[in-house]
Amino acid sequence: MADSFKEAVCVHAGRVYDSCCDRDCLEDLAIYFSPAGQQLVNQAIGVRGRSAELLTTLVDVEPVTFNRGYFSVDMLFYFLVTVDVFTADCTAPTPVRGVCSFNKKVILFGGEGSAKVFCSGVGPLQSEAHLPLGSNLPTAYVQTVDPVLLSATLTQVCGCDPAKTKNAPAAVLAVVGGSFAPPETVQRRVTGTLGLFSVVQLVRSVQMLMPVYDYCVPDKACVATTDDPCDVFNRLQFPMEEFFPPHEPAEPAAPSPCDE
Predict the structure, then answer these.
(1) Contact in structure between 123 and 133 (CB atoms under 8 Å)
(2) Residue 122, pLDDT above cutoff 60
(3) What distance in Å separates the CA atoms of residue 176 and residue 168, rounded to the nearest whole number?
(4) pLDDT confidence of 160, banded at 50, 70, 90?
(5) Is 199 exposed, middle or buried (0-12, 13-18, 19+ CB in 10 A)?
(6) DSSP letter for each residue of 141-163
(7) What is the DSSP letter of 19?
(8) What tens digit of pLDDT does each residue of 44-71 get?
(9) What would the DSSP string read from start to end of 118-131?
(10) How far apart, in whole angstroms, are the C-alpha atoms of residue 47 and residue 82?
(11) Beta strand residue intervals within the chain, DSSP E
(12) Which among 80, 167, 160, 64 is positioned nearest to 112, based on CA atoms?
């Protein structure tokens, strides 16, 4: 590979300045339902957790005033949780979907920069005032997988219990019918405990000098697609390991920094 080195070129790319990974056990998150779903919960004698998925994450980056070069990354996670609601003994449960949220903040190093970024031919503003694309803040990337629903609990509501997620985005509200049940109609509350894995990165656009070995020339021909499902099936590799599992146990994976 070293013998094929041709030249060094300057590229504009995103460099990861800092990152972290984490596992959070989110205990007793209040789950908010639509009016119809809350009516079932009010009549419930028990609930059972079924599944959870991540709907969206709102991310905001702000500089840390007392420590230059560091930034706080504020994340607001919205989860869609499905629970089985039991309203009578010896009857099948009714699945009900609700939404819960979780706030998380981390502080990462993102370097320093005060330049304003401009770009030619971007959007309608280009012909108006040549406005910058934005301030020179690093960009936060949050990577997660769907959480694990560890438990769901039915509790009695005591006093006023305002919906903390009443200002949820419209896309989040849409999955439960467009609105949450009014607080005054909530007689029983379902809380859930979720397990969440996440990776957070602070990335800044930089110019880097990199070695170039050659162009990325494709080394295989494109395979024509077909509408015949049997042809597609016949090209799949036979899943031998599903029928004949290995005789020896797999070696344990090396510990991850997130496991500490």
Answers:
(1) no
(2) no
(3) 11
(4) low
(5) middle
(6) EEEE-PPEEEEEEEEE--S----
(7) E
(8) 999 999 999 999 999 999 998 888 889 9
(9) --TT-SGGGGTT--
(10) 10
(11) 7-33, 46-63, 70-86, 94-109, 139-144, 148-156, 188-212
(12) 64
> Rounded distance, CA 41 to CA 58, Å?
28
Cα–Cα distances in Å, from 145 out to 194, 208, 230?
A: 12, 31, 33
Each residue's pLDDT tens digit, 65-93: 888 889 999 999 999 999 999 988 888 99
Contact 40, 98 (CB under 8 A): no
Average pLDDT of the chain, as a whole number = 82
Measured in whole angstroms, the distance separating CA 129 from the mean position of its chain's CA atoms is: 35
Q: Which residues pair with 212 in a beta bridge?
A: 7
For the chain, the first-to-last Cα distance in angstroms comes to 38
* Global pTM value: 0.77
CA–CA gap between residue 13 and residue 97 (Å, rounded): 41
Q: Give the span between the Cα atoms of 102 and 83, in whole angstroms.
A: 18
Q: Which residue has the tokens 């036979």?
A: 238
Tokens read off for 22: 């984490």
> What is the largest distance, in Å, between two alpha-carbon atoms of the chain?
76
Give residue 146's identity as a one-letter amino acid code. D
- Token readout for 46 is 């028990």
201 close to 19: Cβ distance less than 8 angstroms: yes
Rounded-to-integer distance, Cα 102 and Cα 95, Å: 23
CA distance 169 to 80: 13
